Input
Amino acid sequence: MAIDDKFNSIRKGLLEFLILKIIAADKVYVADIIEKLSTTDFTTQEGTLYPLLSKMRREDLLDYEWKESESGPPRKYYKLTAKGKTQLGELNRYWKYINTTVQSLGQSS
Amino acid sequence: MNRVITISLNGNAYQLEEAGYEALRAYLAQADNRLRDNPDKSEIMSDLEQAIAEKCGRYLGPQKTVVAGSEIERILKDMGPVDPPTDGVAAGASATGAEPGAQPTHKRLYQISEGAMISGVCNGFAAYFNVDVTIVRIIFVVLALATGGLWILAYVVMMFVIPFANTSEERAAAHGLAFNARELIERAKKQYEEFRANHDWRQQRSHWRGEWREQRRAWREQQREWRRHWRHDWNMRTRWAPTETPRPSSYAARVVAGFLVPVFGILSAAMFVAWLIALVSLASTGTVLGWPLPTGIPLWAAFIIVTIAYGAISGPLRAAKYASYGIAGGQSPIWYGFGDALVRLAFIALFIWIAYHYIPTIHALIDGLPHFGHEVAHQATAMVTYFFPTA
Output
């Protein structure tokens, strides 16, 4: 859809922010993240998510720990680091600021 | 019925149908390639393998132990193409997996098997330097002559080291811009590791080692024979002309011998071509120049028999050629060797060219050369396991 396509790069850029939000709420495993996003417009796949998570970990925004699972091998559960939490706060503020800008632009004041 | 391949994903064994295996391999190879500059590559790769393994597990049960090809297709579609995050501003590529095709193509040396005579190395060089492939081939032959065959060894190494241009991206890169030596070295390392990881490599290595020893032994033998031959020649001269100038033979004998040298040269080159054709036809059709093998003789044994027969016929022929050269009054064995090699290669090339253009079977055989390589490797393995069943 043409309208969708115009926001492709925006959606892609927002993915990191959304992942921070999801991980902040709860310790999650990659399949959880994918499932949470699957009902939204930000549907993503392992092929995108794993490289992105590893990049974020290198930037010290998040970390993971291994947890045993009942079915199969141990899984990586992600959580935010202190730096990740700080960045999430900043991103939240910035997102609100953008939102107000978008809302207010073009409105007769 | 489908062949099943067992693979290990992050340490667990899974059985896949062959088609699924190919698709999975292609997917992982592409992922590996796209992550090549990523410092966390190995970790991401094992994460991906783990995710694929879990998805495979969903298709398996107590009554179903094999993952079907269509199921792998679905799993890979579910995984999505591996898409390394770009720092800073996101590239225009969508999250739904459009190819990041807008990257500048880097010129790289590839082997191009379309229209190749052997493996595509010359083709790749031609594309890389943007010259006609015939020129590259001529240069290669001249190099092979000038280095006394060492270039052939270099060619074999290149066959191993230079990657094949399989995708359209790679084919574009074969003609594209700059070429990165570091990537070449890494590719060589990787291919070497793949070669090592292949469980046949021990057998193949021991086979090639034996072959190499055999070659060296034959070469020493040959040199000894040559020395004996020249010494003998020298003795003849001193005996027949004990005074000053060494006049080996009469004028008539020298003329006849001078005429015989190229005749023997052509004959031995023809023998060589016949031997090559016999080997190729054995590998591709299982017959020797149209005659089927007697039952009970394995293919590798037929290879050896044909080679021994070739040695038995060409040996005396070669000796006769050297002898007539001696009588004709050649002085410099170095020039003789160079000239002989040149004549030999020219004749072989001519024979093959004529055969390729006028004999349809041979045309088909030569087109089947890549298959020949596979068959030889396969038969070598069969031979080793025949002699060392436990190896």
User: Anything to note?
Assistant: The first strand of chain B starts at residue 4 and ends at 9. Chain B touches chain A through 33 residues (CB under 8 Å).
